[in-house]
Amino acid sequence: MILLNINIGDIEKFCKISEFLENIFLKRNWDVFITLVLDGNKDQISRIIQNGLIKNICKNVSVWVIIRQSTIIFSGKLLMSGVKKLVFNSDLNGKKLDQIPKSRKVLLIKSKNYEMISLNLFDNYSRIILDLEDNIISGEEIQSRLSIFKSNIKVPVVFSYNEIYPSYLAVASQGVGILINFDFSMDVSLIDEILVNSLDFKKLDGLIPTIVQDEYGEILMLAYSSKNTLKRTIKTKEPTYYSRSRRKIWIKGEESGSRQILRRIYFDCDADSLIFIVKQKNVACHTGSYSCFNDSNFSIGFLYDFISDRIQNSSEKESYTKKLANNLKLLLSKIQEESDEVINYSDNDNLIWEISDLTYFLLVLMAEKGIFPNDVINELWRRNI
């Protein structure tokens, strides 16, 4: 896990937050592998909630927010806006903190103070951020501190350091996340290298196994990434791999047209395996199957894509789905009709039938309005607090 910590006030000295995201964060495709950690005072946090900015940011970026005593009152609103996790200092307490699920809480502590904190406290958080504090610290000392810390604490750890540091591999290979404190004087090109520098390419002579998965969770293929292909993948969002049999770099879909668009990159606890989350066009397997492991499993996502294709590429004469999409009044009347039939179901088999009908019409409405299944899933996830 790689996080970028940035103070809202520091951003606003140079530009608007939206400009920072557009011109630096998203332009460099950091959204595919970095979680953004925002820090701000009461007025700044209140403002980004009230103007809807934080909700818009969370649509495209994985976001955590650091919570202070003055901003703890915004915890619920931040989570409802789509913030993944809230980061709390060890001295914060109160009913609002107790009401937040463990899965959404992160504890920030100073490395020199952790022995003074009750070990039971760590069990209330999903992750720990260990602030190493020192401006100058050796790789060996980082290893030593992390080793001592992890021997006592079983919660996943992220380490925070004030400089971009060369020992990413040693830290990441221990299953430890990295938090970089962003500074506008920083050479941002160094951050572009952070994922590559965090991974262990030595075990397979410069290659890392890469599991490729679609947006709906289906595994598509297994490939291999080198440092160069990974850099290109991040730069272009066009998954690029290394072929062991042909001993050459290849871009998925360059010849077949079955291209992939990168959505997210994850690496495992040993930093020697990757997962690419992609949007797959056509099929992933050279045999013509959607997946190298099987034909496509039917899912809501698969049905949504089929409906979208009918809306975009069919005529009303060819497709009832297209007719519905072109006639909102008709579509809404069908949703009303099917809703009534769901309410008045006769037995379980009939209920399944009517729910299926209603789901189809709702998906047509979603596709016509540009709302994706993951938008609904994320909204339900936001409510799970």
Sum up the structure in keywords.
385 residues; alpha/beta; TIM Barrel; Ubiquitin-like (UB roll); Helix Hairpins; 3 domains; eight-stranded parallel barrel; four-stranded mixed beta sheet; globular
Tell me the total number of β-strands.
14
What spatial order of strands do you see in the largest sheet?
1-2-3-4-5-6-7-8
Shape: globular
Domain count: the total is: 3
Number of helices: 17
- CATH H-level homologous superfamily name of the largest domain: Aldolase class I
- What is the CA-atom radius of gyration, in angstroms? 24 Å
| Alpha-beta classification | alpha/beta
CATH class of the largest domain, please? Alpha Beta
How much beta, percentage-wise? 15-25%
Write down the overall mean pLDDT: 86
Strand count, sense and barrel status of the largest sheet are: 8 strands, parallel, barrel
Q: What is the level-2 CATH architecture name of the largest domain?
A: Alpha-Beta Barrel
